[in-house]
């Protein structure tokens, strides 16, 4: 989980398109482990390395439980809500650079322009990104990363992969990680101490925002997190397109034989 947070993906700021998306983002970042796979259950085709992934998942959970989570709790206690909001805005603003670059690579110039506008407005009027004036001006952009770019370029299906410190991901996202790091402004800070400090703050801040959400996970936690993560990534790659709703289509029809009298009984 530690590394997944360090990717600067900012789960709570990727997309705000409703509670289901927020829930998926929360679940994918959670550092919770479970017991091994149930014997006899059919293997998930997207997770052929489940045995390896489960062991790494447990390892990451131990690190989170005894290091990152206590730090996040302390941060949440001592940090006022307005300051937390400013920190969130600051790191989200830095991520607009990556979004703009990947939007161009994906052939989305409009989204690239929105991301660029957000960065310029919030970096100036918003005092270095601490204030999110762009959102108040209704200037919003879909967050993009290089894993999504690879998907747009044709790498549609990718195996689920959990790595030490990096946490949940896919082989495609792991391949794109170096490019995402290269597109992040913090990477180019000359002051190594400041760069390390900001990275640590980003990780702890995101973890603190997830503390209240862990109770939402139930059942086989490993599979719950895996399935939620894969669904969320698919949602992001498709820019929130969930497919056609048959009940919203003009040519959807039904007649009286589809329902019996019992369907309308009290």
TrEMBL record:
The keyword S-adenosyl-L-methionine does not apply. PROSITE patterns: PROKAR_LIPOPROTEIN. One of its GO terms (cellular component) is membrane. Keywords: Lipoprotein, Signal. GO terms for biological process: intermembrane phospholipid transfer. InterPro entries: MlaA. Belongs to the MlaA family. This is VacJ family lipoprotein. It comes from Vreelandella andesensis. The lineage of its organism: Bacteria, Pseudomonadati, Pseudomonadota, Gammaproteobacteria, Oceanospirillales.
């Amino acid at each position: 989980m530690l590394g997944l947070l360090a990717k600067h993906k900012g789960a709570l700021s990727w997309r705000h398109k409703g509670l289901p998306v927020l829930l998926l983002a929360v679940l994918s970042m959670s550092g919770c482990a479970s017991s091994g796979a149930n014997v006899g259950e059919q293997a998930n085709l997207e997770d052929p390395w489940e045995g390896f992934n489960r062991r790494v998942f447990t390892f990451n959970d131990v690190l989170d439980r005894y290091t990152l989570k206590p730090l996040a709790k302390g941060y949440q206690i001592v940090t006022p809500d307005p300051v937390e909001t400013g920190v969130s805005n600051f790191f989200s603003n830095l991520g607009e650079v990556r979004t703009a670059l990947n939007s161009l690579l994906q052939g989305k110039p409009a989204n690239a322009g929105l991301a660029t506008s957000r960065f310029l407005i919030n970096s100036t009027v918003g005092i270095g990104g601490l204030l999110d004036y762009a959102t108040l001006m209704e200037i919003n952009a879909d967050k993009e990363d290089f894993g999504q770019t690879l998907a747009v370029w044709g790498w549609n299906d990718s195996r689920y992969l959990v790595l030490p410190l990096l946490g949940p991901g896919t082989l495609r996202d792991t391949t794109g990680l170096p490019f995402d790091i290269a597109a992040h402004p913090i990477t180019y800070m000359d002051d190594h101490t400041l760069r390390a400090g900001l990275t640590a703050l980003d990780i702890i801040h995101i973890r603190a925002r997830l503390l209240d959400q862990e109770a939402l996970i139930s059942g086989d936690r490993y599979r719950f997190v895996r399935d939620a993560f894969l669904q969320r990534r698919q949602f992001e790659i498709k820019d929130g397109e969930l497919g056609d709703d048959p009940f919203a289509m003009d040519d959807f029809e039904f007649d009286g034989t589809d329902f019996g009298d019992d369907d309308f009984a009290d």
